[in-house]
## 1
Amino acid sequence: MSRFLRRFVKKMRFEHPRNTGSLGGIRQPSNSVSPFTPYTPNRFGAEHAWTPAVFAQRGPTVLVVEDNDETSFLLRTVLRRKGYGVIEAWDGKQAIDVAENEELDLILLDLQLPRLNGLGVIHRLRQNAKLENVPIVIITGQDPEKYRTTAIAEGCDDFLSKPIDFDRLDALLDYYAPTGKLAA
């Protein structure tokens, strides 16, 4: 540390905010707000009634297999806003476990995954009679042409390149797992 910087740091004073109100007076606790305010369902307006019929209207279920947190968050957010049920897995082995235990309508699968890559996941899923007809769309930042023949031979249905083209994603969703609009 330079001499100038040391002198500057010694002269600096750190002040912490004081416990004062907006006009400089001492803050007083308010009796009008209690931390134990009971929950009232219509406190912020009408709530949607969750009935079995609403759950029956839930859209198709999509398994998102992605090890990148940002891409996973992006896909999860977009899919949920479009009315899809979203299940996530972060590696190949977990993807196989989830796919074997859930009813899926579509799988969005990254190629580069820990523990078992996307091609290995496709191979294992296509050996399962329950999953042989579930559409699998590979999501990759790699050149799709590099893996296209191998992926199609394993049972891949389509490709989506990163960065994600949302128009292409919409087209794939409409084709492989169409969803109807929920009744309001």
## 2
Amino acid sequence: MERGVTGRRLRRRHALQAPARNVMPSNLLPLVSVVSVLSALFAWCYWPTIVGLSKEWQQNSDYSAGQLVPLVALFLLWRDRKILGTCVLRPCWWGGVALIILAQAARFYGLLFMFESADRYSLVLTIGGLVLMVAGWQVVRRASWILLFLVLMIPFPGRVHNLISGPLQKMATSGSVFLLEVFLPRVSQQGNVVVLDENTRIAVVEACSGLRMLTAFIIVAAFVAYMVRRPRLQKGILLLSSVPVAVMCNILRILATAVLMLVVSADVAQKFFHDFAGFVMMPAAVLLMFGELRLMDWLIVPEPVAPPERTSA
């Protein structure tokens, strides 16, 4: 009899000491169900837009870096999972519904007037509305930079593309001619063509304007600005500096191509311009950004911290 009682006590003790299974709390089950349903509806509604974006990334080299933005955004969410886990979930239905209605109005405008960019930007706005609807303002504030980062996956509208591409093309041509005049005696510019001598010409066409570098460098600068621990002013300066960094790197690429064309051959210069230079410019741009952060450390003096006031005994 005593052995039976002792056995039951041991089994009960082992049952109490056994590790508990990871069972989802019952209060989270409705939230998970709502998120699943809303995600399915979002994918169903925006599937044609997502497919169109994917084709644009694959076919247009100027915006091929946009396909990395969703993956980087997921990485940033995973990195900040502990911080986001401390947020209090307070769904804001009215705010989320208002954002979604605004997004659908923009989408309807885009479909009505054949303005594809409005449909694409409404995708990001809808994601923000869904997050606000399910999680609340605190989560939206914590993840606001990541939500804004998603805008970088959208190609520029046609008008903006044409407005930027032309000046970039002219700056690349003029900047390369200015640097080449230091080393070569006979260099001239004819429109967007760099004339090295009577028989050697480099045409800086629209594909060589540096727009692909610009879009890629903006994405990299936004990622670096999010990762480093700096004041918002320094992060903003770093993000804005991606534009002159892209222009400078493109000018250096044209300069190296011209030197190779004169010293080696046109075929080697062509391969360098389209293949090797693209891989070299990105690490160079990242080094310039970190050098810029180092320079800001030297130029910006932190405010002195006031000593604590002493209380009289």
